[in-house]
Design goal:
alpha+beta, ten-stranded mixed sheet
């Protein structure tokens, strides 16, 4: 249906989806939704395989890598083995940094304050919500390079929700988080 709409209205697929997406922010902080999937990582504007491999040297055949704390991480080539506890290794943190970089690039930014809104499978969210939030916020300020471009990100907060119902995608996480923060702001001002 969307493809027919795009074709009939002379939209380029990528341009249509890039320009018609509403961005959520609160007081200059971008609310960024990331679906931390076992098969794919998803944001409002990108989807890439949940795969990361570390090297001490920059990869020769791809620019799709992240440079962080002396390591070079190739992103999205292959598939990560299943790990029930998503904060057991650095992979999900590195993949989230790649997702942030892809979203910032799509918005024409290289520096931002980010409030992460991440989704976990319903089966794991109860047991992993607090530990995964801490894991995502392990560094409040992060400097790194992705695809040859430098990014400076301040992670100001993180909400962890579940992959279900309206929050079944990254844009839904952003909206959910935005509405929650908005309610808190209204309640505080009414206080």
């Amino acid at each position: 249906m969307a493809d027919n709409f795009i074709k009939n209205n002379n939209y380029e697929r990528e341009d249509f989806f890039m320009t018609k997406i509403r961005d959520y922010n609160m007081n200059g902080t971008i609310i960024l939704g990331v679906d931390v999937g076992y098969g794919n990582y998803k944001t409002a504007r990108c989807c890439f395989p949940t795969s990361v491999s570390r090297s001490d040297q920059p990869p020769v055949f791809t620019r799709n890598y992240l440079e962080y704390e002396g390591g070079y991480y190739t992103i999205g080539e292959g598939h990560k083995d299943f790990v029930a506890e998503k904060s057991m290794d650095d992979d999900n943190y590195i993949l989230t940094l790649a997702a942030i970089a892809k979203e910032l690039k799509a918005r024409g930014l290289s520096a931002a304050k980010i409030h992460l809104a991440v989704g976990l499978p319903l089966k794991w969210v109860q047991a992993q919500r607090d530990s995964f939030r801490e894991y995502m916020m392990q560094n409040r300020h992060v400097d790194y390079k992705y695809a040859g471009k430098r990014y400076a990100v301040d992670i100001v907060d993180c909400n962890v929700t579940f992959n279900h119902d309206i929050r079944a995608n990254a844009k839904g996480y952003e909206y959910f988080c935005y509405m929650k923060l908005r309610r808190q702001k209204v309640m505080a001002s009414a206080g």
